[in-house]
Write a structure and sequence with these properties.
Layout (H helix, E strand, L loop, with lengths): L2 H18 L2 H16 L1 E2 L3 H10 L3 E4 L2 E4 L6 H19 L11 H13 L3 H13 L6 H18 L3 H14 L6 E2 L2 E2 H9 L11
Antiparallel strand pairs: 1-3, 2-3, 4-5
């Protein structure tokens, strides 16, 4: 299981939970977090079966799930440890949230929360599903927020050129918008945050 597959598995389950409060997705996330932190976990049969099929870094042995050390190189282990810490902190911060479903403002507010937690790829994953079915006047606005999330994801992979390109595109996409839109101060975002942006500074939106 490579880094991309790990990233996608975590993001898919988190977004399923954020959209619909899908209990199984949350249980899978919490179980894998426990396995990574403690080396093992005992969980319900259906959760264990799903994880063992989807997440090859975790294997079933008797009634427990164990971390598959044979598949873990040092780089993957470090990545997984950081991912688990970030997800645990984020999940602990939710405190009885309202599922975002297809509501634009709830999705944008949640995307801001993800961004503040450093979960930049997850901003993209959450908003893209909404963007794909939005053909009205907010389509470019959503696309701009997605591109901001992906830009900062590029920075985590040391892709400065990709970062600069997407920040420039995001600012252009935001040109038709002004004021406060779905909790985002668009004027501040365009004029102060994106206009003076460097890769070593994390914006607020």
């Amino acid at each position: 299981m490579d880094i991309i597959e790990i990233r996608n598995w975590f993001a898919q389950n988190l977004c399923n939970y954020l959209r619909n409060k899908e209990k199984k997705s949350l249980e899978k996330l919490l179980t894998v977090i426990e396995v990574v932190e403690n080396g093992s976990s005992k969980t319900k049969k259906d959760i264990a079966e799903s994880i063992s099929l989807e997440f090859s870094l975790v294997v079933r042995k008797n009634e427990k799930l164990l971390l598959n050390q044979e598949e873990l190189d040092s780089f993957t282990k470090e990545y997984l440890t950081k991912k688990v810490k970030a997800y645990k902190n984020f999940l602990n911060s939710l405190n009885g949230f309202e599922p975002v479903d297809s509501d634009i403002e709830r999705n944008v507010r949640m995307a801001r929360k993800l961004f503040d937690a450093g979960l930049y790829f997850e901003v993209h994953e959450l908003l893209e599903e909404l963007w794909m079915v939005e053909f009205g006047k907010y389509r470019e606005f959503l696309q701009a927020l997605i591109q901001i999330g992906v830009a900062y994801y590029h920075i985590t992979n040391y892709n400065t050129r990709g970062f600069e390109h997407l920040i420039k595109n995001a600012k252009k996409l935001l040109e038709p918008y002004s004021g406060v839109l779905f909790s985002v101060n668009v004027d501040l975002l365009k004029e102060e945050e994106l206009s003076n942006q460097t890769s070593d500074k994390v914006i607020k939106f």
